Amino acid sequence: MSEQQPGKTAWFDWRAVALPAATAVVLLAAWHFGVVASGSDLFPKPHEVLAGIVELLQRGLLLKYVVASLFRVTWGFGLAVLIGVPLGLLLGWFRPAFLAINPLIQALRPISPIAWIPVAILWFGIADTAPVFLIFLASVFPITTSSMAAVQNMQLVYLRAAQNFGVRGLPLFRRVIFPAALPQILTGLRIALGVAWLVVVAAEMIAVNSGLGYLIIDARNAGKRYDLVVAGMVMIGLIGLVLDGLVRRLERCDEVRWGHGRN
Amino acid sequence: MWALAWVALISVAHPVLNLGPWGGSAAAAEGKFRVGFLPVTCHLTCPVTDFINKQLVGEGLFEPVRFSGWPELKEAFLAGYTPATFLLAPMAMALREQGVPIKIVYLGHRDGSAVMVHKDSGVYRMQDLRGKRVAVPNRYSNQRLLIFRALNDAGMRADEIELVEMPPPDMPAALYARAVDAISSGEPFMGQTELDGYGRVLWLTKDVWPNFISCVLAVHEDMIRNRREVVQQLVDGIAKSGKWLDASMDHRMDAAQFVAEKYYNQHPRLLEFVLSKPPDRVKYSNLSLLRPDFEEIERLGVQAGILQGKVRFDDYADPSFVRDEGAIEPHAWPGLGRR
Amino acid sequence: MAATDVVVDVRDTWMSFAGNRPGEPIHVLERIGFQVRHGEFVCIVGPSGCGKSTLLNVLGGFIEETRGSVLVEGAPVKGPDPGRIFVFQENGVFPWLTVEQNVGFGLWQRPAAERAERVAHYVRMVGLNGFERAYPRELSGGMRQRVEIARALAAEARMLFMDEPFGALDFLTRLKMRADLVRIWQAERKTILFVTHDIEEAVQLADRVLVMTRRPATIQAEVTVDLPRPRDLDARGYLDCRDRIFALMGMDAHQSGVVVSR
Q1: Percent of chain A at pLDDT exceeding 70
Q2: d(CA A80, CA A137)
Q3: How would you list the strands of the sheet with B63-66, edge to edge?
Q4: Binding partners of A (≥3 Cβ pairs within 8 A)
Q5: Are residues B167 and B69 in contact, defined by beta-carbon separation less than 8 angstroms?
Q6: Which of the four pLDDT bands, split at 50, 70 and 90, describes residue B212?
Q7: Does the pLDDT value for residue C142 go beyond 70?
Q8: What structural domains and CATH numbers belong to chain B?
């Protein structure tokens, strides 16, 4: 029934690997020859960045820093999900709550997490809590807003069907409103996770002593180590790619797949 | 379920991997106070003291916390996270003016800053900087006052050059890209441009403002009131480290080695370079607080518009921790013993 | 008509909505009055947008009449009721649940064994065996409507309110669904109120057809379809009945081309 294009989706699609690989090769070549042509000896060439990553691996720093950044993003983003999703559902459902709180959320949302750095230090010192707080701030507003919109955009027919069967109160939230909103919430989570990962560099500008953001700032302190600066950027990009892929896989789950366009 | 497993895994892996012996915050639990610093030579005595303490006593007496920029350093002090910190002298004085209970208890260093230009530029004296862009670390930095003093000496007005604020670690690249015409901050970022072959010294601090002070050791007044013996111990350690650094070039080379490796994460050659070429590029002796030094800073600070002249030496400084500079002996530690 | 048999009793009911301009409400229903007996299959036909769905929504408890008396099962309608299930045109099957989870949706307070038994029974009744674990997106439009009907029956609904449930289906599927609905209704003997704009559909399904006028709508006629089931679509009685309703709605079935010539 849903087997559109038989044989094409079922088998491994070589183009999904070959095409991005070709893009990467072209960009790396442009990068390499661009640096050569500019005559710069400060900006690293691709192979120097690779050597930088290998050096970080050998010193055991790469694993440490990746773990540290993932730790902060896990907690910051996790807390944002735990608070943002229920809050968004609530605001989407109860209009007085929406009227009371939505303007505040929309006013806080455009403030860059970087602007919160001084506040984060004053409130949380400089341990892991401050970066976790910044990542939380960066992700909680998109999550709340998308959850709220998901409830408001929910098809009325699901609600009526549920009410018809006498479902109300908390079970209504759990059995109907939440699952009906879930596809749009997941899309919001994917965007928010991207933002959370984006903020990790700024969040680790605070004097934590680990993490990929710290790696970049530390490499600037270290004098002429722009290879490590770019290595940090490359690692952040690669992990961001993996995270996005994971959430996209979640969007393929049966419970939410109906809400994501083509089957 | 997978999500919970992931949270558990990452929450165990992070402390295991990143909160090790040199990781830092573990010491907080043992009641040690934190001292904030930046990876610049102006703050070198902080890690040197910590390292020598560990060699002599077997453990550090305080917890050095490395920051990456002046604002974060200042904010951590204001938040009470670092009750003692190395700080720009005019910034400490300005904070006092703004009502922060901060006291300068000792100097961090003398000299150790420079103004660098691109080696291919035609700038050879202050007058050549007319209409050019000069980077300073912060509006409250003494490097900015240093530029003011050099302008005064050259008979120039402040508005004849364009001053921009820039974090010192970004300065070498900015000079390389010629985004700015001159840069000025603490070492080793000035020496780095020289070492990498595109920077040229316009002048060192000792040429314009001998015994220049960029950074001081400052503490919260509560520390002096409630834990005076701890502050005394800290100042003594810093003073002994200064004497130790200035006692022999071998000591300086040792410090370059262990500080670069364990505290600053820089290339040891860079610190070796700025600590030795020339040897009086930065000095760590005579770090007692002297009233005339600060009155000069007050005067220039008012002229630069960063101080209002409301507070005096007795308000923001407490020189009582070192009465006799001459009596200070260097640490009784022979060094790494590599030779 | 014995009074105890009457499960829907609507008298002099009016319905109007606030319009775009204040003080000028839009009148949708006027002076509506009719009765439905227990186990009866009643169709409501009328021009598009006349207010048929509004009337059904009033009966279902989703909107409230402006004035009048609407008694369902002997009491004024206070809101949706699990004993009276709505089947929606736009398909109210929950897409995040499988077929069997959807069918069992109204049974969450029953023991698991009873739930499984009822689900299996009604899945079979609507001919969806083999698709228990399928998700709605994997089903055709007709199958989704069967899920919705099974869901209503499984919850022991005494009455079904069906709002153009086959409107979005293709012609052949529609014919099949009608036949199946009649079969199920004969087996279960639920009271069904079925709104449609398709006169042929009404005549094929109903015991009685209520014909509504344009807006503001009122019931202009009741046509009793006293024909044996399954109905022969070429029989004299069927065609007469159909043509009478066409005439009531101001159309000649043959001239207006709404009837496919056979």
Answers
A1: 92
A2: 7
A3: B63-66, B34-37, B84-88, B215-220, B102-107
A4: B, C
A5: yes
A6: confident
A7: yes
A8: 32-110+213-327 (3.40.190.10), 113-208 (3.40.190.10)
pLDDT score, position A23: 93
- Cβ within 8 Å, pair A74-B169: no
pLDDT-derived band of residue B30, with 50, 70 and 90 as boundaries? low
Task: State whether A205 and B81 contact (CB < 8 Å).
Answer: no
Range A43-257 has CATH code 1.10.3720.10: yes
| ipTM attached to this prediction | 0.84
Count of other CB atoms within 10 angstroms of residue B302: 13
Tell me the C-alpha to C-alpha distance, in Å, between residue A67 and each of B13, B247, B255: 7, 43, 31
Chain B nearest-CA distance from A78, in A, is 9
C45, C221 contact by CB (below 8 A): no
Query: Distance (Å, rounded) from C-alpha C2 to C-alpha B43?
Result: 100
* Whole-number pLDDT of residue B21: 46
* Beta-carbon contacts of residue A153 (< 8 Å; ≥ 6 apart): A184
- Residue A5 corresponds to which tokens in the numbers above? 């294009």
Whether the full predicted model's pTM is greater than 0.80, yes or no, is no
Q: What are the φ/ψ torsions at residue B30 (nearest 5 degrees)?
A: -85, 10
Find which of A40, A71, A123, A215 to mutate to test the B interface (most B CBs within 10 Å of its CB). Answer: A71
Structural contact between residues B94 and B74, judged by C-beta atoms closer than 8 angstroms: no
CA of B320 vs chain A CAs: smallest distance (Å) = 30
Q: Which residues contact B195 (CB under 8 A, 6 or more apart)?
A: B269, B270, B273
**Measured between beta carbons, which residues in chain B are less than 8 angstroms from residue A64?**
17-18
Q: For residue B275, what are the CA distances in angstroms to A61, B66, B257, B270?
A: 28, 20, 11, 9
- Interacting residues of C121 by C-beta distance below 8 A, sequence separation 6+: C154
Among A67, A205, A223, the residue with its CB nearest the CB of B267 is A223
Judge whether A255 and C129 are in contact, CB under 8 Å: no
Helix (H), strand (E) at residue C7 = strand C6-17
Cβ burial A163-187 (10 Å sphere, 16+ → b, else e): bbbbbeeeebbebbbbbbbbbbbbb
Taking CA–CA distances from A168, the nearest residue in chain C reads C80
Length of chain B: 339
DSSP string over B257-309: HHHIIIII-S-HHHHHHHHHSSTTSEE-S--S--HHHHHHHHHHHHHHTS--S
B169 touches chain A (CB under 8 A): yes
The C-alpha atoms of residue B83 and residue B37 are separated, in whole angstroms, by: 12
Please name the chains neighbouring C, where neighbouring means 3+ C-beta pairs under 8 angstroms.
A
Contact: C136, A182; criterion CB under 8 Å: no
- Give the integer Cα–Cα distance in Å for B71 and B69: 6
- C-beta separation of B50 from B60 below 8 A: yes
Q: Which residues of A touch C (CB under 8 A)?
A: 1-2, 155, 157-158, 160-161, 163-167, 171, 175-176, 179-180, 182, 254-259, 263
